[in-house]
């Protein structure tokens, strides 16, 4: 039976799981959750995700939440389909994947998600972007991207010379970020820009980002 | 050669790594980084952690940052010392560990770290705690703890019936939280309180938390 993914393709966290499924060539069924009517905060969604969020998945007997955990599970289960996104056969290489996954989660994600919220989500709800917040978060993001520029001068991808989950975890927020007036933070950094051109032109990325129209 | 840990024992993130080292019975050398003089923002620390933070470790030829990634590396390298904190021999059990590690990182950590900052760190710098922020973050934390109470009515630990990295990742922030006036959020929930009494009385937890005096 195909994996069931509960969510919507414009949600970065749902798209994050879809991206891993496409990378691995895994069949799935997307079960829409109507966020507009707050279906994610009610039955029957809450037993799948008690935090009232998307996505959640069901695969055989297992039900999982949190996109980064779901993708680790998918990468482990389908390790031999294509590249091993976790580089699990090597202690040092897997440590590099883990490190840059944590950098994404704890250095990159906070600023970039706030900037996207202010510049793309706020206007949908008729709220003006808050320039003070945007500028403060851009300062943080630029510092993180300076570290990436240095890192990508030594390696083709964040965790080394292979495309891994560390790169994949950055893609969905960057898809939206590149549609904001702040995209020059990426294009002005040669190594970061080359990395983005590479990971955004992967067939799986193109497929999933096409559905991310808000 | 013993692993070198760069940091200070009162930093939750440094203590997080020390806790894993003690759980696994791994010898280490703590190399103090003088945060008061901003040594973490300067040479020679920056090559170890380009984000200017603690901790960082050096082990044989590898240098790592981000405490959650460091601990995954330590747990993988020393898998057979004591319990396997990542439950890596089972696809479904490792998925549960990953899930509750991500829940800690993305649901629990934000509110609890803000509350600790407001109630413990602010007064150190002569700043009053901001009650509005504390109340708003407590609302979020209480909702997360309600999910934990339900989860812990089914399993002894967050990821199942074994103590894992998912539990360990919660400990250091809880050590400080239990010293705040908000500790009743834990003690008033019978299952969460029993879980906390269990994980806080482990010899490794006692050892590391004794050094966390601010």
Automatic annotation (TrEMBL), chains A, B:
State the top-level EC class: transferase
Enzyme Commission number: 2.5.1.18
Question: Entry's PROSITE patterns?
Answer: GST_CTER, GST_NTER
Listed under GO biological process in this entry are: glutathione metabolic process; toxin catabolic process
Q: Which domain of life is it from?
A: Eukaryota
Report domain GST C-terminal positions: 90-214
Gene3D superfamilies from the entry?
1.20.1050.10, Glutaredoxin
Q: Which Pfam families match?
A: GST_C, GST_N
Protein's UniProt keywords contain Cytoplasm: yes
Residue intervals of the GST N-terminal domain? 1-82
Main location, first listed in the record:
cytoplasm
Asked if Transferase is a keyword of the record, the answer is yes
Q: Know the name of this protein?
A: glutathione transferase
